[in-house]
From TrEMBL:
Subcellular location, record wording: Periplasm
Similarity comment text for this entry: Belongs to the peptidase S1C family.
GO MF term (any one): serine-type endopeptidase activity
PDZ domain mapped to chain residues: 266-357, 400-456
Coiled-coil regions listed in the entry: none
CDD domains: cpPDZ1_DegP-like
Enzyme Commission number(s) from the entry: 3.4.21.107
Substrates-to-products reaction catalysed: Acts on substrates that are at least partially unfolded. The cleavage site P1 residue is normally between a pair of hydrophobic residues, such as Val-|-Val
Annotated organism of origin: Prosthecomicrobium pneumaticum
Protein name: Probable periplasmic serine endoprotease DegP-like
Length: 491
């Protein structure tokens, strides 16, 4: 509208200056892209493939009377407090059925349905309700909590109408999308909006990569499809941000690019089989990028490598910055877990790392991620204490001493952790700002392994002579969890 007013104003000024009488006439608006006139035909062809998912679950009974909210000081507050305290003293343990509703969609005419894991999690009975009134019992073929996806199977009397996945990587911010689902149990409901953003991380899991849309998504839409204007499923609606529980135009969908591989594995194996590299990584900040000579912040910084893991076998080292995996760029840290998870287990891929300012190409063969595996902390025996006080070094805002059995015992440092020990940190220093504390261990300075105080001094002095302002330091806590920090020189 602002553009139209500007055009009209300019035409008026030009006509008056020429002294010519101009009759008022309709002025064509500028050619602007607009949304579709109607999605009726598109919706009509898709809605029969979208189902309402109803579940029931048996839970331990309770009186289930919610405590009402009353203002502090209200004359009813004492009454309600007394009443509900009595209720809590008289629990009712009779089991009861809890119902819930969600959405899903057919991807195979034989009866394969996709929905969200949280829609069916813990359910005793699952029913798929179709647009024509058909109700079919569903069984779970597989589910994955990390991507919030589940695959169901029904036994239809005749082939179902299946939907196709589209390529979510081709989506652009501003593209039109359409959602169909079961909001608040109302049945097949169509809403339209645009792609508001891509690659959203909402801190729901390690593989967050959501499509954000302003198409109305409400409770009950979970598990329903998000379509492009070609009628392809490019997302599975899974979450909203809302203080009220209703749509405020911020909804999130799992992109098809993330879902396709997970769905295939759930159908074939009943579980996910993700790739595993065996590295501990951290975000590359601007300060760390400068200290490593990277230029701009990019990639995933390797803070630790699992012994005997695929990364170790490939020669990946702590301090490497992984910038490419299997031919795809690693723009930021959270890109790498998704790329590794999608990698084919047992098939060699190229990994490009930046090591001491130069790119190095390596080959690694991803293993299989065991979801319940955790690195075990190294056991340590208790050696006798040493009476002698070791010499110390004050540098970069820290007081450092050589590792001794006594210090290892004092701070509970695992036997696998080696380096020099931090015994004090100067308040307000760069070390303090980066969360270094007494009991931490300095493992590397300027990507050089340190075992003594002299090992710490040499790379710092070299960096100062080069005119550097920051130096990368690898720090370990007592349990052997590593991370890089960039410390200012001159502290």
């Amino acid at each position: 509208m602002a553009m139209m007013k500007t055009v009209i104003r300019r035409l008026g000024l030009a006509a008056a200056a020429a002294g010519v009488l101009v009759l008022a006439a309709p002025i064509a608006p500028p050619a602007l892209a607009r949304g579709p006139d109607s999605v009726a035909d598109l919706a009509e062809g898709l809605i029969d493939s979208v189902v309402n998912i109803s579940t029931s679950q048996t839970v331990a009974g309770s009186r289930g009377v919610p405590l009402p909210e009353v203002p502090d000081g209200s004359p009813f507050q004492e009454f309600f407090d007394d009443f509900f305290n009595r209720q809590q003293q008289q629990p009712d343990s009779t089991p009861r059925k809890v119902q819930s509703l969600g959405s899903g969609f057919v991807i195979d005419a034989s009866g394969i349905i996709i929905t969200n894991n949280h829609v069916i999690e813990g359910a005793d009975e699952i029913t798929a309700n179709f647009n024509d009134g058909t109700k079919l019992k569903a069984t779970v073929l597989g589910h994955d909590s990390k991507t919030d996806l589940a695959v169901l199977k029904v036994e239809p009397a005749k082939p179902l109408k299946a939907l196709k996945f589209g390529d979510s990587e081709k989506l652009r911010v501003g593209d039109w999308v359409m959602a169909i689902g079961n909001p608040f149990g109302l049945g097949g409901t169509v809403t339209v909006g645009i792609v508001s953003a891509r690659n959203r991380d909402i801190n729901s899991g390690p593989y967050d990569n959501f499509i954000q849309t302003d198409a109305a998504i409400n409770r009950g839409n979970s598990g329903g499809p998000l379509f492009n204007m070609d009628g392809e499923v490019i997302g599975i609606n899974t979450a909203i941000i809302s203080p009220s529980g209703g749509s405020i135009g911020i909804g999130f969908a799992v992109p098809s690019s993330s879902a396709i591989n997970v769905v295939a594995q759930l159908r074939e194996f009943g579980e996910t089989r993700r790739g595993w590299l065996g590295v501990r990584i951290q975000q590359v900040t601007d300060e760390i990028a400068e200290s490593l000579g990277l230029g701009q912040a990019r990639g995933a910084l390797v803070a630790g490598v699992t012994e005997d893991g695929p990364a170790a076998a490939a020669g990946i080292q702590p301090g490497d910055v992984i910038v490419s995996f299997a031919g795809r760029p690693v723009v930021q840290m959270r890109d790498l877990p998704r790329l590794v998870a999608d990698a084919e287990i047992g098939k060699a891929v190229e990994v490009v790392v930046v090591r001491k300012g130069a790119e190095v190409t390596l080959k690694t063969t991803p293993g299989r991620l065991e979801e319940n595996d955790e690195a075990a902390a190294a056991a340590s025996s208790t050696p006798p204490a040493e009476p002698a006080k070791p010499a110390d070094l004050k540098v970069l805002g820290m007081t450092l001493v050589d590792m001794t059995p006594a210090l290892r015992t004092q701070y509970g440092i695992a036997q696998a952790v080696n380096g020099v020990v931090v015994t004090a940190v100067e308040p307000g220093s760069s070390a303090a700002d980066n969360g270094i504390e007494a009991g931490n261990v300095i493992v590397e300075v300027a990507q050089e392994t340190v075992g003594t105080l002299e090992d710490v001094q040499k790379p710092i002095e070299a960096r100062q002579k080069e005119g550097g302002k920051l130096v990368p330091v690898l720090v370990a806590n007592k349990d052997g969890d590593f991370r890089y920090v960039a410390l200012r020189l001159g502290n």
